[in-house]
Amino acid sequence: MEFTIALVQFKPERKNVTKNIQKIQSLLQGLSADLIVLPELSNSGYLYAFSQTLIPFSEPANGQGPFLTALREIAAKTKGVIVSGYSEVDKTKLYNSAIAISAKGILANYRKTHLYADEKSLFLPGDSGFRTFTWKNVTIGMMVCFDWIFPESARTLALAGAQIIAHPANLVLPYCQNAMITRSIENKVFTITANRIGEEKLGEQKLNFTGKSQITDPKGEVLYRGPKNKSTVHVMSIDPEGALDKKITPQNDMFGDRRPDFYINLAHLK
Ligand code: ACM
Known about the structure:
By secondary structure, this protein is an alpha/beta fold. Helices cover 20% and strands 33% of the residues. The protein has six helices and 16 strands. The strands form four sheets. It has a six-stranded mixed sheet with strand order 5-4-3-2-1-14. A six-stranded mixed sheet has the order 6-7-8-9-12-13, covered by helices on one side. Helix 5 links the parallel strand 8 (164-168) and strand 9. The longest helix has 13 residues, at 66-78. The N and C termini lie far apart (50 Å). The model has no long low-confidence stretch (mean pLDDT 97). It binds acetamide. Residues 40, 116, 145-146, 170-172 line the site of acetamide (ACM).
């Protein structure tokens, strides 16, 4: 089966939701895709000193705010589902979230499980658990950026049936792109890491985001790796059925051969 995916890499502007909407609208002008993945915190940008200063650029998961309203309108034009990272506010609590949204509305909302560095002073650790949704009979899972370093994230999504892992990111460490190749092989899934580019400064702090957004397939082939520091949209067709066969040799099934009793219970070592 043919399933069209698109990955978007750009530089979200801090404290400027309107400009970020306009950038996304212009990058996706005239495009159609079953699944589009945007970076982490695409509405707000990344570096903030306090939750209080981030709240005005955040919005609730009910889809009523300007960013999610715009994404829904864009999804109507691109005729598919969009997964985007965004800063979510729930009353006074902030979450670093990813949402799946189509013309009809919200399919799933995921709150980042593993917060990175100073994110811990802005956001609460996610309480949604890993989330999947189905689009055109394809099961898609969501994780956000630093979730990558915990293999349990991708494993949980794959065990829940995800054929594609949509992975909005704001990467600063250099390891993730290589690690996602392994996440693909060990779970036999497609991964789409939509990373951001550019630099942000806050006082003494300076972060350089690493670009090189990436698509991998269940054999660990890198189907696409983007540029380091340029906005880009990459569209391609994949066959998600390739992620349904978990055999790596005729005798080895990546899921069937698991021995969970030995993974979580270390009592036998005592
Ligand atoms: C990250 O999780 N944004 C590094």
